[in-house]
Design goal:
Radius of gyration of chain A: 19 Å
Largest sheet of chain B: 2 strands, antiparallel
Helix content of chain B: over 70%
Strand content of chain B: under 5%
Strand order of the largest sheet of chain B: 1-2
Order of helices and strands of chain B: HHHHHEHHHHEHHHH
Number of domains of chain B: 1
Shape of chain B: globular
Number of strands of chain B: 2
Radius of gyration of chain B: 19 Å
Order of helices and strands of chain A: HHHHEHEEHHHHEHHH
Distance between the termini of chain A: 55 Å
Structural class of chain B: mainly alpha
Number of helices of chain B: 13
Shape of chain A: globular
Largest interface: A-B, 43 and 39 residues
Oligomer: heterodimer
Structural class of chain A: mainly alpha
Chain lengths: ~300, ~325
């Protein structure tokens, strides 16, 4: 029973984290049909920015609670800056090219950003555990849990709700849904698709950076955290179906609970259980659970 | 055109004795880099053959590493030291794994293929990093190799492995060149163009993709085994995404129009890297990425297309 509760809570926490890092990826793919490998760099940039800013904040001696404002602010700033830079500086010259080629392009951007991170922040690890420890722990049936982790669940729910609300309940969101369904027709109807792309890419980049910033207090921020995230996030969105927000949520829940169960019951398999689930799902549904059917080109 | 009157085949064949003869003249370090780049060039050829069929593999390091570890582990734990046995084993293990994974991979194209291959190679990387017996991130050393039961002196052995690498890589390039001209190779290109029509014409796209995938894996496995023999050492870095990314980079930069171009490109890149890394250690990937973007924007056919264009013009 205790184990079951532990699996449930751990699964929920991990699923929240997975959802946060993958929702931006799936949003960008859904709208722009670009599988953005540089999403991993945005995660890393968010983590580094948060680590430095929060570090500086604590060094300045201001009230510690303010660090919870600094975390997302840092993420939004780097996300917006790099999102704008990548979309306007590189991607806009590539629209209309093959999807695989876009993977190569974002991969090249990823390579560049990996080194930019090393040049700016060096290769030594950064620690910002203060925001994590500050909230303390609570006991659930005698098991201590960090309150920060529960906060992550709430934030993931809020992010998911915000994205859903933005897409389905606002005028601009509905225009965006139109772009997702048919880019050319939307353009013909007078939607400014170029602007939509830019906004989507910036929002997606911010989401990636927020994922990184909120993760930073839980880990040591080192070079190379980006690549693991992009592979994991891809696994999650593929389980749900690439380009579907609900799919990312379901994928995150499936992957989160499976991983938590594995960690508690058979820890040796932790490393690849998510890929195992992905392979299993793909074996039955070749393009994920909620993927839209694709027209065949003849 | 028969095999022996094909000019490209003859040029590649003639390059084998030339490279081997040039071996003793070259400074040791140049020969070493040539040898390593020819070995990893096989993995690049693996990427190239898949690219011709429209498939981008971001995880060719998986098979490069499998080939290397198969050779390394057999040498280290079983005590087999014959270079031919180790090379053969590297190929067989890589191809064997590819046959199994190919059933999954051959269902996918485009981004799914790219990302799944990346995921698979990262699984192997994760496994090897966790494996204490195999030295985790440090890897382990191979015992001194032997040649058909002979145990040559250090100097002679190094030259022999160099000669073997030259021969294997160029013969593989010739084979690949002929393969790409064969009906099977042509179907691969047709799949990149329009898969449904391929099916209408009576060929199974999945089977051809599966075969291409296994062929690429065998090439990369051979490359990995030869690289392990050249370095005398294997480590998980061979399966890391950076390694695979570099293979894709070379394939893209050199272009996929010619089998020799990736080999030459790989050697030049290896040489440039020696200086670039010494000059500025944290900008290597930045340079790679930036060059890749420029090539994609301005030279979609790779650097080799410049050569082709000149030929067509003059």
């Amino acid at each position: 029973m205790l184990k079951l509760v532990a699996i449930f809570i751990d699964g929920l926490v991990y699923a929240s984290w997975l959802f946060m890092v993958s929702v931006g990826l799936t949003l960008i793919y859904g709208v722009m049909k670009i599988l953005n490998i540089a999403h991993g760099s945005l995660f890393a940039l968010g983590a580094y920015a948060a680590a430095s800013l929060v570090g500086a904040y604590f060094a300045s001696g201001l009230p510690p609670a303010g660090s919870y404002v600094v975390l997302p602010v840092a993420a939004v700033i780097v996300g917006a800056f790099f999102g704008l830079l990548i979309e306007r500086g590189i991607l806009r010259f590539m629209y209309g090219r093959d999807e695989v080629l876009m993977v190569l392009v974002t991969y090249a951007v990823f390579l560049v950003l990996e080194d930019v991170i090393k040049l700016v922040w060096g290769v030594d690890p950064y620690f910002t555990a203060q925001p994590y420890g500050l909230l303390g722990t609570i006991d659930v049936l005698g098991l201590p849990y960090a309150v920060y982790d529960f906060a992550l669940i709430a934030i993931a729910l809020a992010l998911g709700a915000a994205v859903w609300w933005g897409l389905n309940r606002t005028g601009r969101g509905k225009l965006l849904v139109a772009v997702i369904h048919d880019r050319e027709m939307s353009r013909a109807m007078g939607i400014n698709v170029t602007a939509m792309f830019l906004v989507t890419f910036i929002i997606g980049s911010m989401l990636g950076a927020i994922g990184g910033a909120l993760t930073a207090p839980k880990i040591s921020v080192v070079p190379g955290i980006g690549v693991e995230v992009i592979v994991l996030a891809f696994a999650v969105v593929v389980i749900g179906g690439l380009g579907s927000i609900g799919g990312a949520a379901v994928g995150a829940l499936v992957a989160g609970f499976v991983r938590a169960a594995t960690v508690h019951l058979y820890p040796e398999a932790e490393l690849f259980v998510i890929y195992g689930v992905m392979a299993l799902v793909l074996a039955v549904w070749p393009h994920g659970l909620f993927a839209q059917a694709e027209a065949r080109k003849i | 055109m028969s095999v022996l009157t094909d000019r490209n085949v003859l040029v590649l064949l003639a390059a084998i004795p030339l490279l081997i003869a040039a071996g003793p003249i070259m400074p040791d370090w140049v020969r070493f880099f040539l040898q390593v780049s020819l070995a990893s060039g096989l993995a690049v050829l693996g990427v190239v053959v898949q690219m011709r069929a429209g498939l981008v593999s971001f995880g060719q390091g998986l098979y490069y590493c499998l080939g290397a570890y198969a050779a390394g582990m057999t040498g280290h734990f079983v005590g087999v030291t014959d270079v031919f046995a180790l090379l053969g084993l590297g190929i067989v293990v890589a191809a064997g794994v590819a046959v199994v994974l190919g059933f999954l991979m051959s269902r996918y194209r485009e981004i799914f293929f790219a990302m799944l291959s990346l995921a698979l190679s990262m699984i192997l990387y994760g496994l090897l990093v966790k494996a204490e017996v195999l030295g985790s991130t440090d890897g382990f050393n191979l015992p001194k190799a032997t040649f058909l039961g002979l145990a040559p002196t250090e100097q002679a052995l190094r030259f022999a492995v160099y000669a073997l690498t030259c021969a294997v890589t160029l013969l593989a390039a010739i084979f690949l060149y002929r393969y790409l001209k064969s009906p099977m190779g042509r179907i691969g290109e047709a799949i990149a163009q329009n898969e449904i029509r391929v099916e209408y014409l009576g060929s199974s796209a999945r089977t051809v993709v599966h075969i291409t995938y296994v062929l690429a894996a065998a090439l990369s496995g051979a490359g990995g085994a030869l690289a392990a023999l050249a370095n005398g050492h294997v480590d998980p870095e061979m399966a890391n995404w950076t390694t695979s990314g570099q293979f894709v980079f070379v394939a893209l930069l050199s272009g996929t129009g010619n089998v020799a171009a990736p080999l030459i490109g790989n050697f030049l890149l290896e040489m440039i890297r020696v200086y670039a890394v010494a000059w500025s250690p944290y900008t290597w990937q930045l340079i790679l990425g930036a060059t890749m973007l420029l090539v994609i924007l301005f030279l979609p056919g790779g650097l080799w297309s410049l050569v082709e264009r000149r030929k067509a013009g003059g």
